[in-house]
Amino acid sequence: MPRFCHDFLQRLGTVPGLIMLGLVLFWTIGLIVLPQLSMLDFSFRANLPPSEVGGPNDVHTLENYKYLLYGPEGGSQRYNSVDLKVFFRTIVAAACVTLFDLVLCYPIAYYLGQTQGKHIRVLALLLIIPYWINEILRAFALRIIFGETGVLNGILVGTGLSDAPFDFIRNNYALYAGLGYAYILLMIFPIYNVIESLDRNQIEAARDLGAPWWRIHARVVIPYARIGISSGCTMVFMLTAGALAAPQILGGPSSLWFTQLIYQHFNDSSNWPQGAAYAVVLLLSCIVMVLAFMRLFKVSMGDVNK
């Protein structure tokens, strides 16, 4: 038996510990591993009517993945430029939103982690309260703010900064702002949780030695907070790349998100194998980006488990 399981059973007792381990295994295997394996199997199947499922035509194929690369004709000389463009735009946009959230949230997390006093709890509560509202309702609220007759355009036109309303939605500013706003807590709190445990004497010592503020952060704070930064970037990127509500509500007519293609294959076209193939591609891409974040911040799985 692994040592962590033995320690876990000793702390909780044999019977409660076995029940808890059983629930964890059920959650991990039954609700995560098996559905992903089922989706992977679907991605290699042909889209057949129910009467042909299990028959001679129900074989494994790579056609669903070829469709992403070459389109419906499957020709080796023509790429499926539309779907590939949507895929790469989603990945790049998710990376940009993650970078934006990191730049925005790092100072906030540092201030919360290194400042003492009761007002810190008030600030943390003020950050949390807006997220008591459902994500879809927040997206519609942002659409009202960024609309052509919305609050922001009313201010721009009313103050004379703009002669005519600007279409924030068609130009995707509303979409990127909504995605950046949706997951800022998932960037702030992992970084805050690490910085809070940073010994302030290290920062004071660096200041006494004459280090400027940027060198203190580059040499002391950021290396110490790398686990929290990596965790925050991972969660924000994966949720942004897999977002559906915000692109549906805040996206312009030409701002198709890759998850919308997956949704169309699953629900509109009833082509589950094709949707599963697109979902697998998105999942693998997110895993690659997570590994890239961990390598960038020099974080290993052992560091994450501490």
Count, helices:
16
- String of helices and strands: HHHHHHHHHHHHHHHH
What is the CATH topology classification name?
A: MetI-like fold
Radius of gyration: 24 Å
Summing up helix and strand content along with how strands pair, one would put the structural category as mainly alpha
Low-pLDDT residue intervals, each spanning 5 or more residues: none
Q: Indicate the mean pLDDT.
A: 85
Shape: globular
CATH architecture label: Orthogonal Bundle
Q: Report the helical percentage.
A: over 70%
- The CATH superfamily is known as MetI-like
Distance between the termini: 20 Å
Tell me, what is the CATH class?
Mainly Alpha
Number of domains: 1
Q: In a nutshell, what does this entry contain?
A:
Helix content is 71%, strand content 0%. With 306 residues, it is mainly alpha-helical.
Describe what you observe in this structure.
It is globular and about 75 Å long. The protein starts with a helix and ends with a helix. The mean pLDDT is 85. Helix 2 crosses helix 15 and helix 10 packs antiparallel against helix 11 (213-224). The longest helix has 34 residues, at 81-114. The protein has helices at 3-12, 14-43, 63-70, 81-114, 119-128, 135-146, 151-158, 173-182, 184-195, 200-208, 213-224, 226-241, 245-250, 258-268, 272-296, 301-304. The chain contains 16 helices and no strands. The protein has 306 residues and is mainly alpha-helical. It has one domain (71-304): Orthogonal Bundle (MetI-like fold), CATH 1.10.3720.
